[in-house]
Design a protein that fits this description.
This protein is α/β, with parallel strands linked by helices. The chain has 14 helices and 11 strands. Strands 1, 2, 3, 4, 5, 6, 7, 8, 9, 10 and 11 form an 11-stranded mixed beta sheet that branches. Helix 6 links the parallel strand 3 and strand 4.
Length: 340
């Protein structure tokens, strides 16, 4: 057992906090002995979550026609209009105009997710910020869901930047959680997005928390970031955002976006990312979300051994997930329990 990893594992299990230097030391050690890191990440997960696994699902409330220029995203109009010279062809034909889901469609998807064991349903909109109609649709859906048999499933909204007033509207309608990813480190963010700032994202998370909503914020990996970026993101989340849930997404390169030729990360490195987030954020619900099927491949079940306490089930926004029953069978085979 690597002594550096073991020493920090005991510190974290005892309630201590991992610092930046220690995190970098663990990463260096994990390159030699990744299984030692997974062992301690799994112990930390078990200490806070036992055998419970939390599932979530999402539905696109508004899809496409986004004016932002996030380099990984198929919904950006910047890449549909030709984008930079290294973009070969526009991605995802048909997303040039927004496609909006109505209240009934959201209710139907939520009911289906509840029957599959999901405890949270995320309504995700493209665009920098919501308009009055977007807020109206989400609040109407949240109020309706709270009066239905599947009311035990909690509603999450991911609508981009919101004001304090919009946050209060969402919270008062029964939206339990607000999702807004920081995506990467402050240092890396400007290389990936130019149409809004890191501080814009942080301000939205502050507004959501101030309104009484739970906060969900994480990142995307495989976009060219290094280990310092990954650790700095985790530390920013822990020290500034204090999220309840941290989604971990892996890049699935979309043809036509600037990252279409991004080299894939190996599954063991992806699992190391999960494990490091578990050690830095020991009490957070860490969910592996977009890109796990394509990137982890046969090692998907290892995400729990690496410290994840949940995952997203069903389809994503512009890519398909695997059959939900396969995920449920995987969880049963591991001797884990879906938390209700």
């Amino acid at each position: 057992m690597d002594h550096v990893i073991a020493q920090w594992g005991r510190v974290i299990l005892g309630g201590g906090a991992l610092d930046r230097e220690g995190a970098l030391d663990i990463v260096a050690a994990a390159r030699r002995t990744p299984h030692d890191l997974f062992y301690w990440a799994n112990r930390v997960r078990q200490a806070h979550f036992g055998n419970g696994v939390r599932l979530c699902s999402i539905i696109a409330g508004k899809l496409g026609a986004c004016a932002e220029d996030c380099k990984w995203c198929a919904q950006s109009l910047a890449w549909m209009k030709g984008g930079p010279q290294n973009v070969s062809h526009p991605p995802r034909q048909g997303l040039e105009k927004p496609q909006c889901a109505g209240v009934e469609e959201i209710l139907s998807a939520t009911s289906q997710a509840a029957t599959r064991g999901a405890t949270c349903m995320g309504i995700v909109n493209s665009g920098r910020r919501p308009g009055p109609r977007d807020i109206e649709t989400v609040t109407a859906a949240a109020r309706s869901i709270s009066s239905r048999p599947e009311a035990s499933i909690r509603i999450s909204a991911s609508l981009g930047e919101i004001t304090e007033d919009q946050a209060r509207q969402l919270a008062s309608a029964g939206v339990h959680r607000y999702h807004h990813n920081l995506e990467t480190s402050r240092r890396m963010f400007g290389q990936m997005v130019s149409t809004h700032s890191y501080d814009d994202r942080l301000a939205t998370l502050v507004a959501a928390r101030s309104a009484g909503m739970s906060v969900c914020s994480g990142g995307i990996f495989g976009i060219g970031e290094n280990w310092e970026d990954r650790i700095d993101l985790a530390l920013t989340l822990r020290d500034q955002v204090r999220p309840d849930t941290v989604p971990i997404n892996f890049l699935s390169p979309i043809p036509g976006t600037p990252l279409e030729n991004a080299p894939p990360l190996e599954p063991m490195e992806l699992l190391t990312i999960v494990a490091m987030f578990r050690l830095i954020l020991p009490r957070c619900d860490i969910k592996v979300a977009g890109g796990r099927q394509a990137n982890l491949r046969d090692l998907q079940s290892w995400m729990f051994y690496a410290g994840a306490s949940g995952c997203m089930v069903g389809n994503y926004l512009t890519t398909s997930g695997r059959e939900v029953e396969q995920d449920l069978q995987m969880i049963r085979d591991l001797g884990l329990d879906v938390m209700q």
